[in-house]
Structure formats: structure tokens, C-alpha cells
Amino acid sequence: MAAPALELRSLGNTGLKLSCVGFGASPLGKVFGPVTDEEAISSVRQAFSLGINFFDTSPYYGATLSEKMLGKGLKALGVPRDQYIVSTKCGRYAEGFDFSADRVTRSIDESLERLQLDYVDILQCHDIEFGSLDQIINETIPALQKLKESGKIRFIGITGLPLRIFTYVLDRIPPGTVDVVLSYCHYCINDSSLEDLLPYLKNKGVGIINASPLSMGLLTETGPPQWHPASPQLKAACKEAGEYCKGKGKNISKLALQYSLSNKDVATVLVGMNSVQQVEENVNAAIELTTTGKDEETLLEVQEILKPVKNQTWE
Ligand code: NAD
């Protein structure tokens, strides 16, 4: 009998069908620790061969390194371009933010060169809360619409942490202008605040990407990177939850990913991965969810541990 396939889900009105687990490529920019070229390339290859068809990066991750590594990995696949879906971002760079039409228009050419691609499927304005939302509406998005017409990008997205940015922008532009929103750290076990916004986003016809199901490392056995912005209280609670799971012979990352994957209004859950082992664990977690369901008992216990910090975020 063939192994169960990774589920594909529709991304809003784009017509794209994304694997429910997406490959977050920020770790390929060494954002979460060292990664060799070989590890990066084999992680991308293993992801694709196990059914992951969506890869997300940004010029900001590792000061362009993530785009370069992902480009090498995708090229090494040696498959037709329409077999995989790539998103990158614009407006956030190692040197700072710049959402001007001029900068984002140059940015896509630089990204395409690093990715070794002729087009990307989605170009997203990266972390728009750090810019002027009115500039995003009046200048950046119109510039991206021109890029759409030129064929360098197929769809337009916006990303950021505070959920209010999405309603601010979507309430002020014609329907269909923004195709995709990427929210992060708001649909994981410790913070599920995105859930309340899902009906609004669906009504606006935008595709929904949920990134960082492991809360950027909080929900892992090894813990978050040094730069993680969570409060000491939130870090301590997540550590306690991880240790509780380990003591029970369970893995907090698997539980966390399965939790985020359970809501089918979300097209894809983007997990940052930098090893073949992580790719295999995450794909297995998704397949197990569809075959045997999630571990409700441990989930309830972990939710109880995380109750005092539920929906706690950072600026
Ligand atoms: P994440 O929650 O996916 O956690 C990533 C960390 O978990 C890394 O250290 C990774 O090595 C580790 N990990 C992955 N699988 C694991 C497993 N099975 N067991 C143990 N550890 C595991 O956080 P993230 O990488 O920040 O988010 C995912 C992706 O979403 C990013 O790579 C990026 O593409 C995207 N993203 C975008 C934005 C934005 O646009 N503003 C923000 C955050 C994330």
C-alpha cells in the first residue's frame, strides 16, 4: 500500500494548492544556528520528495543567505518550475526597512537572481507594522501590482505580527488586491489569537498562511534562540510544557505542529526547518494527524500549563 500523501489545501482565491506543511526557509539563513550547504540542499530535497510543495523565504533572513540556499536547493531538485510554489518578501532587509516603490521593484530582481528563478508565486510585504501602513496601501501594493502584470510575481501578500495590521490594510483596498496574508506566532498552542480573525479573512477572500507553529522555537525540546523576543515568563512556561511532554515520552514540537494543522481554514502551516530529520518528523506528524488524530489528552495537559501565558505576545 502506498504511504499516505501530505494533504493539499487551497490558498484563498489564488487557485494554488499548497501542502498543509510548508517549508519555512529562515533557518537556511542560519537564523536558528549553523547549517551547511549540504544540509540545506538535502532538507529541501527531502521536503519536496515527501510532498512539501511550498517554500517561503525573504531577503532579510540571514541577510540574503536564506534565498541563496533555497535557490540552490530548488535547482538541485531538477524538476519543472510549476511543481513547486515559492514565496519571498520585500521591504525588510538586513540594513533596515524600505517599502518604497523603487526599493521593492529592485528587490524582486535581486531575489529572483538569488533564487535562480524567473518568477515567484507570492511576493509579500515583510513585517508591515514597522513601516507606514498608508504607504503600503498607496505605494507598495500598487508597485507589486505592476510586478504582477510584468509576470515576475503571481500573487501579492502582506505579513506581520500584530493582527490589527491585516484589518487596517484589507479594509482600505479593493477586494482581490491582496491575495494572501501571512500571520506568525498567533496560531500555536500558547497563542491562538488568529482564530478570531479567520472568518473576517475568509470573507475578504484572502489565502491564510500560518507561520511559526513552534512559536519560533519556544515549543521545541531545545528551546528558543537567544534573540527570541518572548518574556521570561512565557519562555519559562513553554520550557515547563516541553519538559512535561518529554517526561511523558511525547514531543512538544509534534504536538504543537498537529495543533496548528488542525484548522483547515489555514491553507498551510509554515515550519522553519534545517535538517532532513526535522523535515521527516514534521511530515510524519502531519500524516499521523490525518490517520490517527492528535493526542488530545497531552494537548489538554499542555494547554493547562500554558494557561497563565495564553495569548501573551510581544511588540
Ligand atoms: P517555527 O515556529 O517554525 O520554529 C522554527 C524552529 O523550530 C527552528 O529552530 C527549527 O529548526 C525548529 N524545528 C522545526 N521542526 C522541528 C522539529 N520537528 N523538532 C524540533 N525542532 C524543530 O518558526 P519560524 O522558522 O520562525 O517560522 C516558520 C517560517 O515562517 C519561517 O522560516 C519563515 O519562512 C516564516 N515566517 C515569516 C514571518 C514574517 O513574514 N514576518 C515571521 C515568522 C516566520
Give keywords:
315 residues; alpha/beta; TIM Barrel; 8-stranded parallel β-barrel; two-stranded antiparallel ribbon; 12 strands; 40% helix; 17% strand; globular; binds nicotinamide-adenine-dinucleotide
What hetero molecules are bound to the protein chains? nicotinamide-adenine-dinucleotide
State the low-pLDDT regions, or none. none
- Determine the structural class based on helices, strands and strand pairing: alpha/beta
Q: CATH architecture of the domain at 12-216 and 263-273, please?
A: Alpha-Beta Barrel
Can you identify the CATH superfamily of the domain at 12-216 and 263-273? NADP-dependent oxidoreductase domain
**Whole-angstrom Rg:** 18 Å
Strand order of the largest sheet: 3-4-5-8-9-10-11-12
Taken from the alpha-carbon principal axes, the silhouette is globular
